[in-house]
Amino acid sequence: MCIGCGGEEVLPRPKAMLRLTFPAPEYSKWNDGCAYTFMANTLSEPEKKEECSMVLNYPMMKASVFITYKKVNNNLTTLLRDAQKLSYEHVVKADNIIEQPYINEQKRVYGMFYEVTGNAASQSQFYATDSLRHFVTGSLYFYAKPNYDSIYPAAIYLQKDIRRILETLEWDND
Predict the structure, then answer these.
(1) Gyration radius from the chain CA atoms
(2) What string of DSSP letters covers 96-156?
(3) Is 33 helix (H, G, I), strand (E, B) or coil?
(4) Coil, helix or strand for 66?
(5) The pTM is what?
């Protein structure tokens, strides 16, 4: 009778966490006759929209990066204000928003990358401009209700892709 009563206390095992892994990113230049180019992850499926805006769909991660292009016509202050306002609309649900300025004098690309932590609708956003003719914004959205713990691995992976977009952005100044 006492054979099974070995003196060791039986403890419940903790729940395992799902480990999500994604393939190493490979990048190719995206250029569809628009006023800008950048390197996009080949895992994404680009979908061109009107006026050189686009969506980079990531079906495997159930996410999309929405990229919007606008020409600057004496409205740079308004475009900057709108981009910054959009990023800070997530402050209600976000735990933190980290601003990271981006400047590339050689390519004339000036912008800001926003890393959003917490259960906000968008985990990453950016804007970039040459201050004279071009303005681009980008936002990451998942197809599910935000649960930061669950989407964290995909959010980090896609943040790196978005940084790559910003760092490889070039203007076509014909």
Answers:
(1) 21
(2) EEEEEEEEETTTTEEEEEEEEEES-S-SEEEEEE-SSSEEEEEEEEESS---HHHHHHHHH
(3) coil
(4) strand
(5) 0.84
Residue in the block written with tokens 């403890």? 11
174 residues of the chain, pLDDT tens digit each: 555 555 677 766 666 555 667 899 999 999 888 999 999 999 999 999 998 999 999 999 999 999 999 999 999 999 999 998 887 776 667 788 889 999 999 999 999 999 988 888 888 999 999 999 999 999 999 988 777 778 888 899 999 999 999 999 999 875
Q: What is the C-alpha separation between 70 and 134, in angstroms, rounded? A: 6
CA–CA separation, 29 and 83 (whole Å): 25
